[in-house]
Amino acid sequence: MKLNRRRLVWQLYPSYLLLIFSVMLTAGWYLSGELRSFHYRQTADDLRARALLVEPQLQGQLKSIDRELLDLQIKRLGSQSATRITLIRKDGQVLADSDDDAAKMDNHSQRPEVLQALSGQTGKSVRFSNTLGQSLMYVAIPVYEMGALAGCLRTAIPVSDIDATLKGIYLQLILGGLVIAILLAPACWWLSRKLSRPLELMTAGAQRFARGDLDLPLPITGSAETGRLAMAMNQMAVELAERIGREVAQRNETEAILGCMVEGIVAVDNDERVIRLNMAAAELFAVSPHLQPGRPIQEVIRQAELQRFIRQALSQQEPLVEELVMHGPNKRYLHVQATPLTGKVDERIGVLLVLHDLTRLRQLESVRRDFVANVSHELKTPITAISGAVETLLDEDATNDTSQRFLQIILKQNNRLIALVEDLLDLSRIEQEAIQGGCELTIAPLCLVLERARAACETQLQQQQIDLHINCSEQLRARINASLLEQAIINLLTNACKYSEPGAQVIVEATELATQVSISVQDFGCGIEQEHLPRLFERFYRADQARTRNLGGTGLGLAIVKHVAQAQGGEVEVTSTPGVGSIFTILLPKARG
Ligand code: ADP
Question: Which atom of ligand 1 is the closest one to the Cα of 544?
């Protein structure tokens, strides 16, 4: 920014010059007045002295009848003393005048100086002389003859003579003043520079500091005040340098951390503009990590899903977590976590996205799923063939007890294998459908599903003499995949039978909650220790290894239940108390409309 102000030196210097000129003018004006009145007084005294000198020579002349001689004498005295001399009688008649013909002159009794002299004092006056046609200074003294006032003697000189002398003095004064002013001008300039220089040095130093050059301190010059100012600014520069150093170190640290992070980091402001992104995020979206901040996110990351997620995260105060699929030449799976970004005064300035690339994990999962599905599928044929062969042998060689016993063992283990393979195939199918979004959901009454599940477990229920109660309103409907849900309920019922004592009670209940529909299967069997509950729905997880195997479990039943619930947008929960029983609950979203 350019300030339209005069430099300090150009403010001080003219002020000093103006001050000197005004002091000189005032002093000159006062001095000239004093000088003038002093000179006038001196001249008047001089005229009086001249009159007093001339007066004795004219003693007794006032009554003389030889006017011509008197006139000649006055004219001689006048020219000798370069003064106009006039002799005036008591009645005002001019007896003789050095510069004029007395006979032609009018009565002078009313002239101010004459009036004063005739009253016995020294008369003075400066006025215009009609006789000579110019301004004169008059001094008149009384003249006595025989002790009585006989008239007055007047001396005069032209004012122009006095003024000419004064002019000469004035000229010298002005010249003297000019010389002083000329001599003082450089001194003023030097003084102005001396005052403004430290400030100019400080301004240049402050500008240097502003540019970031904080190493060179300001010189401590000038007055105590400017010296203190320079010291304060130097101190400020030292502290600023320290602070900047700390900030830079901190920024480098943050840069290094962000750069090394495997997770992508994207900070977006409230207007959906990129504040910054780290190397991992730049690589993820194939953009430059050094792109200009402030570019709209829609321009930088062309992924509709992510843009929608950011808009949603910006519209709410709570953190948001979602798994998104990025479409493009390479399909990517991202786990995105959005946290609100707050500014200095706790106001929200945007959101911070942390992106975990799950693509590799998903690929491995897919390979694993395909492998399990393929292996299960391949195993199914030989296992079925073994079953057939063993059953035939059992029928044909019924007499040999030993072979019967071994054949029974083979058949039992083979049946377990069949169950395992079928469960694995079911699990793969459900997972596949859920991933591809192909799980078909329809709004259907729940009690029908529960009844079908009961029918499917009928044999087991009877064998175990289980007393099953189904509590479900006929009107209760939900958006479900009926066959999948039926399978899940069958798994839960099978477990309830397996882990209950014969004759025990099992209650299946379906109820409508605020936003969900809950289907619970409660048994009063052995129950499960708390430590097993968090991992219970994992594949092949068994709470009680020995017991489960004996009961012929595959370890996949609950994993299937969990996947069935998830495929329908729901979840599964368990509460259990050892020795009291367990409650498995499937929670499904409520059907809308
Ligand atoms: P399995 O086919 O072995 O029963 P599941 O996945 O169905 O496999 O069950 C996993 C484990 O959970 C079982 O091994 C068992 O220990 C425990 N479990 C499941 N249901 C019950 C239940 N109703 N009561 C007690 N334990 C149960």
Answer: 16
Distance between CA atoms of 517 and 469, rounded to whole angstroms? Answer: 18
CATH code, 385: 1.10.287.130
Q: What pLDDT, in 10s, does the model give residues 103-157?
A: 888 888 888 999 999 998 999 998 888 777 888 899 999 998 888 888 999 999 9
pLDDT score of 65:
67
Return the structure tokens found at 474.
């006929």
Residues 178 and 275 reside in one and the same domain = no
Residues with CB under 6 A from ligand 1: 495-496, 499, 523, 525-528, 536, 541-544, 548, 553-559, 582
Strands 332-342 and 348-357, how do they pair? antiparallel
Residue 317: pLDDT band by 50, 70, 90 thresholds? confident
Whether residues 40 and 135 share a domain: the answer is yes
Are 176 and 40 in the same domain?
A: yes
Clarify whether residues 24 and 118 are in a common domain.
yes
Q: What does the pLDDT read at residue 215?
A: 84
Assess whether 162 and 14 both reside in one domain.
yes
Q: Using 50, 70 and 90 to split pLDDT, how confident is the model at 546?
A: low
Report the number of distinct structural domains present in the chain.
5
Collapsed DSSP state (helix, strand, coil) of residue 454:
helix
Domain co-membership, 32 together with 140: yes
In the prediction, which pLDDT does 3 show?
60
Q: Which of 369, 374, 359 is nearest to 431 (CA)?
A: 369
Phi, psi dihedral angles at 213 (to 5 degrees) = -85, 90
Say if residue 557 is in the same domain as residue 469.
Answer: yes
CA–centroid distance, 366 to ligand 1, in Å, is 26
C-alpha of residue 429 to centroid of ligand 1, in Å: 21
Domain, as residue range, for 10: 1-211
Q: Is the pLDDT of residue 1 over 80?
A: no
Taking alpha carbons only, the member of 500, 562, 499 closest to residue 535 is 562
- C-alpha distances in Å from residue 84, one per residue of 44, 72, 112, 137, 421: 13, 13, 17, 10, 158
CB-CB neighbours of 28 under 10 Å: 16
Which of 418, 540, 542 best tests ligand 1's pocket when mutated (most atoms within 8 Å of CB)? 542
How many angstroms is it from 165 CA to the middle of ligand 1? 137
Q: Which of these three, 357, 388, 403, is where a domain ends?
A: 357
Which residue's CA lies nearest to atom 23 of ligand 1? 496
How is residue 173 written in tokens? 């004064």
At 242 the pLDDT is 92
For residue 434, report the distance from its CA to the centre of ligand 1, in Å: 24
Quick: pLDDT tens for 386-438. Answer: 999 999 988 887 778 888 899 999 999 999 899 899 999 988 888 888 777 76
